[in-house]
């Protein structure tokens, strides 16, 4: 009879394995990141699935952006492994990550505001017709593609020749998302996409976020806004002091619990408060 | 890339050039002659070439203050190639090739040394100056044959070959900026280097290539220098970095990068050379030339600060 707990445990694990979708697009395991003496991430395990919006929450400095930058190839993790689409990857640069289908839209840093809409959407991935190795721009093809992309997003940008700096916050997000779509990204990461937006524009970006997931892409959204998160996210992960302290399906939690986790009032948050 | 304010700036500069021409023509009978007009243009060759490279660098948020010394080193090499009786085609390539190497050195120090461009190139300026001193040993390089002079002054349908070469250089730059991936990449780096990297651009490659291109243009300026003056003194290129930076800023390419105006640089150089020539002809000592350049630079920069304050204050 002493074996019973072990048996129950075993059966539980077996059923867990059968229930868990087999192929999370991203499998991050034991991810750690140190900046000198500061530990920004510690032993983080996260699965990100295609067709799902995953929200990352946490107080300022909790490590959300750092984790996102590891996924995006902007930081090399100090520990842990990253599997994307079944391959173990070690990104040396954002370009590497983009080549693996990861597109990131950073908090206020997504675009070059001095350049035109089309130039931003294609920056670094221009359609070219090389002549003697010189990458000449195929401007007509790019303009046509920009119209299709913006049309798909139902984004109203009257003048695609305008510099991005002259657009509204929501229009800029649409351009950034069009850029991600154009890269044929399979994982789209948005760090605080609605932080600087008016209410109507926030609605639009949230709708877009859902549509991206429904089209079969994996979507990660970092946000401080609990209402926004509950509107779009299928799953939520809470960070505290560089650790992942909780993971909840939307149906199994409520805003109060998430807030308690973020602020540290929830018992589960205490793991992060030990040295 | 050239926005509305850029066009306005070009018109202002063009108007300033025209006004200066009229003023000097009134003050000095020697100014308004065809021969003097040709001289003004001929005096502009080196500065146009060096300022073109400087425009690219500044649009990228960089700068190179060693350009005068690079012109000096490459002029000496060109002079020695000329004295060694090498084929003229080879003589003309020595300068740009050596200049590209020196520019690449500057780029490497800036990119991999993580040293701000102005500091790194100031250091290199000292090193290259020392090279010039060691090679010349306090003497002048002089008595050079006129082979290159004949090339630069050869006229096709009345247009001097030197001016054609300068125009070709600007034309090529325009094509690269507007018709290839180089333009948007350069300006994205100039706007925000880290952001450009996050967006997946090959930032290091573009920066090195731009430093090398600027160096090659300085080398071509060295070839022109030999063609026009047929000697090299210790002080070669002492003021040309200041003049180039002044011309670029006058032309509307901002010192912090992210925007570019080739037309502005062309006009900025023209204005500087008209003023220098005109002031000389009305009897102002040439010592005042750098004062005029510096004053123009300060004037434009402070006007911009005032305008920006007025604009943000009104918004
Ligand atoms: N490049 C960096 N160098 C040093 N420390 C960093 C760097 N980036 C982030 N940090 C630190 O790592 C911690 C986590 O930051 P971040 O991931 O930006 O948090 P969040 O996005 O959750 O607000 C913070 O203490 C922050 O100061
Ligand atoms: Mg953050």
TrEMBL record, chain B:
UniProt keyword annotations, A-Z: Cell inner membrane, Cell membrane, Membrane, Transmembrane, Transmembrane helix, Transport
Localization per Swiss-Prot or TrEMBL: Cell membrane
Keyword Cell inner membrane in record: yes
GO molecular function: transmembrane transporter activity
GO cellular component: plasma membrane
Membrane topology label: Multi-pass membrane protein
The keyword Transmembrane helix is annotated on this UniProt entry: yes
Positions of transmembrane segments: 12-35, 47-77, 89-111, 118-137, 157-177, 208-228, 260-281, 287-307
Function: Part of the ABC transporter complex LsrABCD involved in autoinducer 2 (AI-2) import. Probably responsible for the translocation of the substrate across the membrane.
Quaternary context: The complex is composed of two ATP-binding proteins (LsrA), two transmembrane proteins (LsrC and LsrD) and a solute-binding protein (LsrB).
Protein name per UniProt: Autoinducer 2 import system permease protein LsrC
Biological source species: Meridianimarinicoccus roseus
């Amino acid at each position: 009879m002493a074996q019973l707990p072990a048996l129950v445990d075993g059966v539980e694990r077996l059923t867990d394995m059968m229930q868990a979708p087999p192929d999370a697009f991203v499998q991050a395991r034991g991810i750690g990141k140190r900046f000198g003496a500061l530990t920004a991430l510690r032993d983080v395990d996260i699965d990100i699935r295609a067709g799902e919006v995953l929200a990352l929450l946490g107080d300022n400095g909790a490590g959300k952006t750092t984790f996102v930058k590891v996924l995006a190839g902007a930081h090399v993790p100090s520990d842990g492994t990253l599997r994307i689409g079944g391959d173990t990857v070690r990104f040396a640069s954002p370009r590497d990550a983009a080549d693996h289908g990861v597109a990131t839209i950073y908090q206020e840093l997504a675009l070059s505001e001095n350049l035109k809409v089309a130039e931003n959407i294609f920056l670094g991935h221009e359609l070219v017709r090389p002549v003697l190795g010189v990458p000449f721009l195929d401007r007509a093809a790019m303009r046509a593609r920009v119209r299709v992309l913006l049309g798909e997003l139902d984004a109203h940008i009257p003048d695609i020749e305008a510099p991005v700096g002259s657009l509204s916050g929501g229009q800029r997000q649409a351009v950034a998302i069009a850029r991600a779509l154009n890269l044929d990204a399979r994982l789209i990461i948005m760090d605080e996409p609605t932080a600087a937006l008016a209410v109507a524009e926030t609605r639009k970006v949230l709708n877009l976020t859902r549509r991206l997931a429904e089209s079969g892409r994996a979507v990660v959204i970092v946000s401080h806004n609990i209402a926004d998160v509950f509107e779009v996210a299928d799953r939520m992960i809470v960070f505290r002091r560089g650790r992942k302290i909780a993971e909840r399906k939307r149906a199994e939690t409520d805003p109060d619990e998430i807030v308690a986790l973020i602020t540290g009032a929830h018992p589960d948050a205490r793991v992060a408060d030990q040295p | 890339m050239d926005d509305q304010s850029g066009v306005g700036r070009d018109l202002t500069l063009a108007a300033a050039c025209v006004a200066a021409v009229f003023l000097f023509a009134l003050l000095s009978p020697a100014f308004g002659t065809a021969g003097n007009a040709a001289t003004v243009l001929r005096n502009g060759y080196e500065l146009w070439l060096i300022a073109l490279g400087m425009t690219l660098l500044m649009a990228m948020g960089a700068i190179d203050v060693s350009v005068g010394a690079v012109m000096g080193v490459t002029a000496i090499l060109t002079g020695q190639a000329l004295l060694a009786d090498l084929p003229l085609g080879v003589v003309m390539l020595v300068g740009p090739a050596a200049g590209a190497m020196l520019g690449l050195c500057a780029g490497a120090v800036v990119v991999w040394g993580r040293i701000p461009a102005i500091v790194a190139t100031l250091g290199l300026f000292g090193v290259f100056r020392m090279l010039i001193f060691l090679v010349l040993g306090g003497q002048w390089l002089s008595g050079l044959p006129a082979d290159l002079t004949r090339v630069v002054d050869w006229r096709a349908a009345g247009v001097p070959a030197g001016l054609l070469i300068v125009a070709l250089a600007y034309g090529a730059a325009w094509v690269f900026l507007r018709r290839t991936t180089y333009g948007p990449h350069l300006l994205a780096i100039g706007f925000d280097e880290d952001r450009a990297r996050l967006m997946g651009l090959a930032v290091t490659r573009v920066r090195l290539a731009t430093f090398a291109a600027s160096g090659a243009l300085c080398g071509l300026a060295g070839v022109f220098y030999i063609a026009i003056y047929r000697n090299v003194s210790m002080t070669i290129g002492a003021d040309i970095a200041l003049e180039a930076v002044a011309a670029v800023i006058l032309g509307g390419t901002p010192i912090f990068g992210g925007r570019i105006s080739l037309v502005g640089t062309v006009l900025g150089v023209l204005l500087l050379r008209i003023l220098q020539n005109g002031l000389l002809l009305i009897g102002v000592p040439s010592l005042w030339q750098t004062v005029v350049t510096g004053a123009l630079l300060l004037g434009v920069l402070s006007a911009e600060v005032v305008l920006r304050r007025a604009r943000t204050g009104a918004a």
